[in-house]
Structures
1.
Amino acid sequence: MAADPGGVHFGAAREDAWRACLWSRIALRIVEPLASFPCQSGEELYEGVRSIDWSPFFAGGRTLAIRAAGQTPELNNTQFVALRTKDAIVDQLREQTGARPDVDRDDPDVLVFVHLSRAHAKVNVDYSGGSLHARGLRAAGAVAPLRETLAAALVRFSGWQGDTPLCDPMCGSGTLLLEAAGWAGRRAPGLTRRFGFERWGSFDAAAAQAMTRLREEARAAARPAPELFASDLDPAALEQTRTQAARAGFTVHARRLALRDVTPESAPGGVLLNPPYGQRLERTRELERDIAGLLERFGRQRRALIVPVGFPVWHGTSRWLRVFNGALECEFRRYD
Ligand SMILES: C[S@@+](CC[C@H](N)C(=O)[O-])C[C@H]1O[C@@H](n2cnc3c(N)ncnc32)[C@H](O)[C@@H]1O
């Protein structure tokens, strides 16, 4: 296994890659690298893509989409790159089978990524089938929810081990608590969704059976989650948290409370926090004081929060990590 800023690379047997889709809480996507080759021109791109055997993906008639990114001095138009890639795949399949796959930009069976950088092309195929943050559970209309993958990453960053209760005193729709409960309760985050590889031509009846077995194993792995304490000023947020928890099969103690009134007596255990950003200055100052007070009161517990870079409450931060929350540069901060 190796990590770089773009992702984590690992070698795996086919079923382990499926398992990774089922169980990964933090990855946005899982892709399989198909080829990597020197590439400066459209011709080299075409030949490189054509040298991959595409028939297993498209057996039985499957739809296709290409996403291109990056550039070389000669190949600096991503639309052209996507087009040449598509041509190479379509030409190969037409020659082999006489049939050509249709393009479906929005919901393809086979999604291919081409990435150009430093006169090199990388061709990957999407295992996940859409971003893995979509757990298939979230109701529409949540207020400023954290992306599930980012919430799951904060849970792991916090150092909370899953063996004590957990509290989110600005719970919103409850994403942090539910990701934490899912991890501690060994609920496979991908159990209720389908994956890209399940739509490939090579995914035959035997593969489907193997995948059903993996889902059954995942269901059997579930264990009880710790107690969850949610509070928020907004009654609508509490309602969302209750609904989301019920959908995910967890119970949560949800109460309407201002941050400054939350104490370890009313909500014991670790604390995770995702405060609102971008408010008026005087409201921000008050919030900073309330957060500092909360960190103090819960001084014997694991505490972690996600705040925009520059947020002034440090309060003995023991670890921090830069992350992006959408386009906003933020930090995880952990207080031990
Ligand atoms: C960014 S949202 C949290 C989103 C949540 N992490 C999620 O994924 O759905 C911040 C929440 O803090 C709540 N809030 C703002 N000020 C508060 C205060 N003083 N006390 C308690 N809750 C507050 C808001 O009602 C809002 O639901």
2.
Amino acid sequence: MKINRAILTNNLCYIEGRKHIPAGVMVHSTAVPGVMAKSFISSWNTAKPGGSEVCVHAFLDNTGVYQTLPFDMVGWHSGGGALGSANYRGYIGFEICEPRDLADKQYFNAVKNLAVQFVAHLCKTYGILPEKPAVISHKEGHQLGIASNHEDIDHWWPKYHNYTMDKFRAEVKALILGSDSEEDDMKEVIYNTLDEVPAYAKPTILKLISKGYLNGDGKGNYALTLDMIRVFVIHDRIGLYDK
Ligand SMILES: [Zn+2]
């Protein structure tokens, strides 16, 4: 997956630089038809774009994906106040640029397919399940009480292209499953209980459990993969869990 880097280093959100552990993805669209990613990247690389405290992790249009914040940094995309917001619950938020004509099928297909690939990539990288409530639109976030009252992306995808977030999640899931079976026909080892976790990672996993960051199924089963365990240990060494 090619991701172009265009980090918004002058934006207050980046300057504040609060870290999070990615746990979900929120899909937005800009509600500014005809304005493409490069324009947003230049107009948002300022402290408060248009006077607002806003920043997203990426913009996407029919020319590609442009990463505008590190994915392990809190973004300001869901509104809805401070701690009740998806912003502070690990959601990576990205904006899809809208075509001048929302009924433009060719543009829709191009950006929708790119968004499927991008979200599948994020889900695989961060161990995010491509299901509700981990992968949602801004509107669904509002319905769940973790985002401001915006319509995106329902004013576009379902309305003009009969394409729902459920269809989107199904495509993301299919892509993840398909690519897994191509890359790896060995069955992945799952570490369910604390006893099964490799010794070097036990202090980290214990810390995550005791801080309430890792809950599993509530019965002591955590369904960890080795990749997840490795990332947790690295984050722990960085000190992310000691705040
Ligand atoms: Zn939005």
